[in-house]
Design brief:
InterPro entries: CIS_tube_prot_N. The protein is an alpha+beta fold. It has one domain (14-201). The protein has six helices and seven strands; from the N terminus they run E-E-E-E-H-H-H-H-E-E-E-H-H. A hairpin with a 5-residue loop joins strand 5 (133-137) and strand 6 (143-158). The chain is globular.
Length: 218
């Protein structure tokens, strides 16, 4: 017997890149190891944010601005145990995995060349370069459109050719909501599904009682 047949399958977190117009999946990036910690921050829009304005004290201006922060480990050790099956890792270390993540924060070289060509031709107005829609996937209950706000890599070990073989990657995301994308955008509809799923989960939480607060009522 090689293992337990009833062992649960461990899901991986990751990022899915899609074409916002067609919804076509462009790339799926899964984390090698799930981070042990995921930090989330929600910044409220409105709801008392305007000091001294009584008419705004109980109003929301829109969805809370939500951010995620995670640190993921990338390690070539498992692949280097079987070098014949992982020639790319032997030749490049973990640079391909890191480069895929770095591509999320850079325009492509072709986009830059096209932009330069337009500039050289005298185009008066050049629209900003558009990135694919990135979805942060953390289980079926968290599929959210995001923009990467910060990215850092700490390379911790190297092979004899100075290819990194161990690294820690820190990634910050900002959730894109309907204020950013609109309701008709693919990302806007995914955000609404994410928000509605939160509401369904909140409805399952057990309601409290005045007695647990030490009061008889309000």
């Amino acid at each position: 017997m090689t293992g337990y047949s009833n062992s649960p399958k461990i899901l991986k977190g990751g990022i899915v890149l899609i074409d916002a117009e067609s919804g076509r999946v462009l790339r799926i990036i899964s984390l090698q190891y799930n981070p042990e910690k995921l930090t989330r921050t929600l910044q409220v829009q409105g709801a008392g944010g305007e000091g001294g304005n009584r008419s705004e004290a109980m109003r929301f201006k829109g969805p809370a601005v939500e951010t995620f922060k995670l640190e993921a480990d990338i390690d070539a050790a498992d692949q280097l145990e079987f070098p014949d099956q992982h020639r790319s890792v032997v030749e490049n270390g973990i640079q391909p995995q890191v480069s895929v993540l770095e591509s999320l924060v850079n325009p492509t070289s072709s986009q830059l060349l096209d932009r330069n060509a337009m500039s050289q031709s005298g185009t008066l107005e050049i629209a900003p370069m558009e990135a694919p829609l990135a979805l942060f996937v953390w289980g079926k209950n968290r599929i959210v459109p995001v923009r990467i706000t910060d990215f850092s890599v700490t390379e911790e070990a190297f092979d004899p050719s100075l290819n990194p073989i161990v690294a820690k990657v820190s990634i910050g995301f900002r959730v894109l909501n309907v204020d950013d994308l609109g309701f008709s955008h693919k990302g806007g509809s995914l955000f609404m599904s994410y928000l509605q799923n939160k509401e369904r989960l909140a409805a399952k939480a057990q309601a409290g009682a005045f007695s647990t607060l030490g009061i008889g009522g309000i």
